[in-house]
């Protein structure tokens, strides 16, 4: 499984970005799909996850601002980020767990929130 994350960039505070994670195979085979982030000098942290059943979970710091979704036909899942804050600045990684319990990471995409 290969994951390709994209959509990062520089945005002003209050702005929006949408991250995409394209999978090399069918996302139907994944039990869990998620986004993590790692800010400079900090540990990687969970941002949002979505299960094969459609359940979602978010870090408290992004609830109400970020939305995770998926497009099965495109084998892609997304992270819509609104009302971005400087503290959202980080490298964002997509991650999946297969039906067999194997997990895979995409290369990160940098999000910088700054005026």
What would you say about this model in short?
With 115 residues, the protein is mainly β.
Rg (CA only):
13 Å
State the end-to-end CA separation: 37 Å
Q: What is the number of beta strands?
A: 11
Low-pLDDT ranges? none
Q: How many helix segments?
A: 0
**How would the global form be characterised?**
globular
Give keywords.
mainly beta; 7-stranded mixed β-sheet; 4-stranded antiparallel β-sheet; 115 residues; globular
List strands and helices in order, with pairings.
Layout: E1 3-6, E2 9-11, E3 17-23, E4 30-38, E5 45-51, E6 56-58, E7 66-71, E8 76-81, E9 90-98, E10 103-105, E11 109-113
Parallel strand pairs: 2-11
Antiparallel strand pairs: 1-3, 3-8, 4-5, 4-9, 5-6, 7-8, 9-10, 9-11
Describe the structure.
This protein has 115 residues and is mainly β. The protein has strands spanning 3-6, 9-11, 17-23, 30-38, 45-51, 56-58, 66-71, 76-81, 90-98, 103-105, 109-113. The model has no long low-confidence stretch (mean pLDDT 95).
């Amino acid at each position: 499984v290969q994951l390709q994350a994209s959509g990062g960039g520089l945005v002003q505070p209050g702005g929006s970005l949408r991250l995409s994670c394209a999978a090399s195979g069918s996302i139907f085979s994944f039990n869990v799909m998620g986004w993590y982030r790692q800010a400079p000098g900090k540990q990687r942290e969970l941002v949002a996850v979505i299960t094969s059943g459609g359940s979602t979970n978010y870090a408290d710091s992004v609830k109400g601002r970020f939305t995770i979704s998926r497009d099965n036909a495109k084998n892609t899942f997304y992270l819509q980020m609104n009302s971005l804050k400087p503290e959202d600045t980080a490298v964002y990684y997509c991650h999946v767990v297969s039906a067999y319990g194997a997990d895979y990471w995409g290369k990160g995409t940098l999000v910088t929130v700054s005026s």
